[in-house]
Fold this sequence. Notes:
By secondary structure, this protein is low in regular secondary structure. Helices cover 11% and strands 9% of the residues.
Amino acid sequence: MTRIASSAIAPCLFASTLWLLSACNGPADAGGGEGGSTSSATSMGSAESSGGSASMTAGSSDGSGAADSSGGGIDRYHPLDFGMASVHGPALKLQAEDCRECHGADLAGGTSAVNCDSCHTPGWREDCVFCHGGTIDQTGAPPNDITDIDEVSMLSFIAHPKHVIEQDHPAYDCTQCHVKPTDVLSSNHIFDDTPAQGEVSFLMGLSEAGGYDGNGSCTTLYCHGNGRQDNGAYSHDMATPDCGGCHAYPGTANDDLTTMSGQHRRHMNEGAQCQDCHTDTVSGDTILTASLHVDGNKDVKLSGPASDMTWNAGAKSCSGTCHVGEAEGHNNEHW
């Protein structure tokens, strides 16, 4: 199966099962893609020839279609089932249809005289979950994918769920990897020049130097790096890393403590444990407070053998019981 990149926040889905008619004047395939009615080219004929205006009319609740004032049927631009979310949503999200052509640039009516708000639930324009997500969590991040796939193993970016939930790191917001839209009409959201593709930008996140190859792999990251440089790289189909998956950690394949900043190597070679200096963050190989891990900050709190010590973050030095009579300065400005 060919995967299509998911958007930052996917476009609107119909919450209603109302059957809609469109007043678009173009031919049947003017919107492209799914569901163009073969009879739509004639739907405006009588109104145009008489100089009158046509309006978009909702069909009856039983799906039998609308009738004009003389009792005759009105040809449709969209098919009868277009009001269903499973049909209407993908047509928009994959840009097979551009709703603005008939419903206006603000989706408030346009030539169709039908406001999209009249069928969608209130607040849908700013509600990420209305179009994305809600399957696993309520963040609004996929799943659903832009193709409406919600099976995690088939997502265009499999690791979306891992990033937006608290899992040994904070629950990251969309801004870590995207320019986050504020509503359905935000620039570079749905209606842009890259159909069926979600633009990735790390500029507002922890990994502002990061790069994405468009196929699930990221490079030059702060996250997945050693905490000192933008040297992390990971692919979305790789397993969640262990403690040595990003920075050196004793007992893992990544045990080169010389890559750790300051006096990490010296202290750990002398038996110091991670929790002695990062009490609130870790205990053994368990992350205690996910919000303090991979958060862009060096969170130091001393305990155990170092409980009587004081850490000076500005000077990158500590004093107290472990270093009686001296202030032990760290020898690397990137502690």
